[in-house]
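Entry for the shared binder. Reason: the reviewer on the internal report wants the predicted structure included alongside the sequence.
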Amino acid sequence: MMHVTQVAIRPSRASELAGRPALTPELLAASGARYSRNNEGLRSILSKINPSDLEKSVDSIFRMVDYGHQSIADMVPAAMFMDGISIWLAYYIWTLCPTAGGQESSTRYIKISLDGLIAPETLGIREVSEWRELMEQCFGAYQSSLKLWESLAAANPALMGIPQSLLDDPSDAARKKVARMSRNYAFDRARYFLPAGAATNVMLIMSARGWVHLCQHLLSQPLPEAQRLGELIRSELEIPAPRMLKHAQAVEPVREAIASDFEKRVQLARAGTSCASAIPSLAVLPPEGVTPEELARDLACHTNRYAPIGASLQRTSVRFGWSAIGFAEIRDLNRHRTGTKYCPQVPRGFYFAADQIPAANSESGAVLQPHAAIGRRATESAVRRLREGDPAHVYWALLGTEYPFEHVTTADKFIYEAELRTGVGAHFRYAKHLRDALALFYQRFPSTKGLILEGGAEPE
């Protein structure tokens, strides 16, 4: 069942002992906004606060101006926990709030059961019995696939890439670590059969401006699940930021933009969408006069993925993407904070990790084929309903359903993403995608090869 809870932030014991002020979210914003009108300093501002009426003090310090000054709302922090929303809706939230802090229940670490499927009425599914039957088959494929990958790993531990020294270590700590890595190995490869309509939980902390922006889009959506979440967030937003409520509502320009984007997707689907999977693309635009050697020199101090990168790479525009990759990977790549992501959700295929089965275990590949047929049927159902103009087509898809994906950013951020997504603990599939993109970068700028800290996606 969908539930949203606003969680307040209280001062730490150390803050209380140090005598530091504690303000409500809107009072914090009002105090900060006061700096734009004078230089009296914080103590003078705080002296105007009436401890017995904090809400009245907000306007006595700085009247919360109209939403044309949205930067003031950026200073109103709010944290919310959203339980029981669909995997697709969690993805959509991150498309709207890429700079928010937060976490989501991970399909890479948690086993999900059929009980976690969102009710079709909540999702706006029209063919309820057909959808439920198909989703039950998808969960069956997920469970069966999970057992297959577990048995493969048990029979041949080397497949998991776990260091032999750890496999040979008899200590309890090592045994627990190996068990966790083994579970992750199976989850990583079985998750493609999970429905996008399965439930997950998301926590976000961001400004009231961010929550208003999210509410405007959720409440302008035609999907009932999105609208319901928007209503619940709006209700909780009243607790920390009541002055923002008048802006947290459906907005006609947003509704029109959503409708226009959906119509473009429908037309793309009707035009035909089949293509070869995961063909990488990369376009790089360095500043005029900058040489490849200068870009390589920008990596001289880059000793880890958080270390500095020079100005020329920071000024270099990059557009990279793939013709069709799994929704499971898109959800992870979508969460990178920088730039603009583009993912028209027009299904182009279905991925189910068959390429991860060793040639010596061809019988395991045969076991996966009936499950793959179920995944393809779900993907085809999503395409058909998109062509019919049904916004709920996204809930017929699975994590293995493939869509095109593109990211526009700068070269330093591209390098960070490539290093992160090929590093320790990286998922095997998006590690491959980023390696393919890096290969194109090296073709263009060969002197950077060896300076970019491309990882081996070792398990952690």
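Summary line for the report: The first helix runs from residue 13 to 17.
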